Amino acid sequence: MTTSLFVEHQPNGIAFYINGELQFHSADEAIYHEYLTIPAIALALQRFPDQDLRVLVCGGGDGLAVRDILRYPQVSHIDLVDYAPEVIELGKQDFATFNHDSLSNLKVKIHIHEAFAFLNRIVQEFLTTENLAHRYHAIICDFTYPASVVETQIYSWEWFNLLKQALVPSGIIATNAVSPDLNTLAFWCIYQTIQSAGLNVKPMQLEIPSFTNHNYGNWGFFLASEKEIVCSEINNLVLPEGLRELTLEALPQVFLFEQAIANLRSSVTHHKCNSSQLFFYLLNRGNNHNSQILESGLKLPKIDFLDLQEHDNAIPNILATSDPMSLESLAQAWLKQLESNPESLLIPAQHHSHTPEISQEWLTRVKQLLNQIDLSRLITKLLERSQELPQEIADDLRELQTKLIAFQKQFTQKDSLQLIYKNSANSTIRPTFNLNTAKVIAILSLTLLVANLAAPDAVFAKGSTSIGGTGDGEVGLAFIGLMMTMGGVYWLIHLANTERRK
Predict the structure, then answer these.
(1) Which of 184, 260, 321, 334 is the most exposed place for a label (fewest CB within 10 A)?
(2) Are residues 302 and 332 located together in one domain of the fold?
(3) Minimum mean pLDDT among 86-95, 115-124, 226-235, 277-286: which range?
(4) CA dist 54 → 73, 132, 135, 235 (Å)
(5) What pTM value is reported for the model?
(6) 154 three-class SS
(7) Shared domain check, 338 and 256
(8) For position 393, what pLDDT does the model report?
(9) Residue 203 and residue 284 share a domain
(10) Each residue of 54-65: pLDDT tens digit?
(11) b/e map of 214-244 (b: 16 or more CB within 10 Å)?
């Protein structure tokens, strides 16, 4: 994808955007960059007081993170890795006033490279030579907001495992993340992923006015090390002179989190390179259930993660066994919702431009489609081929047929369908179905919906308007439609039964 860069000149400074997302505003970028870099470098200096520090910066081509790292004269070498030469050029030219010409400093070596590939190569070199002299005392990750599955790889278990191998023992990692209040599950997914790589991790959050004005919420960071990070270390850090925002008194406050947010850290899975788990959390932040908790009005004491020593085995090791964005995973989620409360059906986003309004429009079309289905006729047609169906499915279909016949004696076809699919509280005007029968309704509905999306001309065995007459073409499509429905029913019944046995 082509990267779009935009520098906006404003009365109070400049704002820099990549692909439409704000990267920094010069009026308050010091909040972000000082809290990202200074605690990590100061902690590394405290742990390695008699050594020249080697630092790796991944991303950060604007030079602002490098500027703050260079405040410590003990830093002898910085490797800066950024895949975008255009950003590096802006850092050397347009941003030089703000980054104090940091990218031209002789201590800085710039690598135009993709960070994951670069790190993988140097780790292999370290493992081959078994030489600690070229490993890093601190690694700073300053990445853009991930907008695809591929871009989430730099928050995966494999990535943090590479970072750990690139560090000297007890070295420090600092990485930016996402908003803990707007992307709560994604934030804790990164937290758990870092822990799963064998690192002790401290979450941090900051209010950055320019980010808040863009509706990004508080911004999150993580400070991590293979060695535990304790409160006394943070309280005794030595800060350089000339900082604009960070103070030793204010630093402990960024480790405080509302309990409603912090308690959700045990409900997420780790993220790996071959998974879309983190991206799923990012896309579906509106479906996260933290908003209901936060809006409950309960005022609970905040959790201080600086005092909390939490290891990977202290929280459930929930690891996804399937791709959350696969059709199978989505079908399982829909089945659960359709059985329990069809009115609250959620349509997970599959693309970063997918909005709640799009989901609502799709749901409206779903309801219109369901109201057009002649369910009795569909069940009759399926039962005509009952010998081709598993016995359990055939039995459930017969039970459903009996229920519908009795129910439709009281209501018209249209009214009965609306009542069936509506989760009415009045049990006297709806049929009583057992769990298996309710599951059949859900499965039939979902099969038709998925098949309609895949082949709208064939799903109801109605043929295609693109084929003239009523010849063999329409017969073939009719057969395909019926086979899709039967195959979908069989597949979804299998999913439902598998889920029930777990």
Answers:
(1) 321
(2) no
(3) 277-286
(4) 11, 11, 7, 23
(5) 0.78
(6) helix
(7) no
(8) 73
(9) yes
(10) 999 999 999 999
(11) eebbbbbbbbbbbeebebebbeebebbeeee
Count structural domains, the chain: 2
Question: Which residues is 167 bridged to in the sheet?
Answer: 136
Phi/psi for 423 (5° steps) reads -85, 70
Residue 168: enclosing H or E segment and its boundaries? strand 167-176
Is there a domain that residue 100 lies in?
Answer: yes
Q: Which residues lie below 8 Å from residue 6, measured CB to CB, with a gap of 6+?
A: 16, 17, 18, 20
Residues 306, 231: Cα–Cα separation, whole Å? 6
Q: Which helix (H) or strand (E) holds 385?
A: none
Contacts of 389 (CB under 8 A, 6+ apart): 382, 397, 486, 489, 490
Residue 403 confidence (pLDDT): 73
Question: CATH number of the domain that 214 lies in?
Answer: 3.40.50.150
User: Strands 136-142 and 53-59, how do they pair?
Assistant: parallel
Give the amino acid at 332: Q
Same domain, 176 and 234: yes
- The answer to whether residues 284 and 348 touch, using CB atoms and an 8 Å cutoff, is yes
* Residue bearing the bigger pLDDT, 420 or 266: 266
CB 286 within 8 A of CB 356: yes
DSSP result, 196-260: HTT-EEEEEEE--HHHHHTT--SEEEEEEESSPP-HHHHHT--PPTT-SS--TTTGGGGGEE-HH
14 lies in a domain?
Answer: no
Average pLDDT in the chain: 80
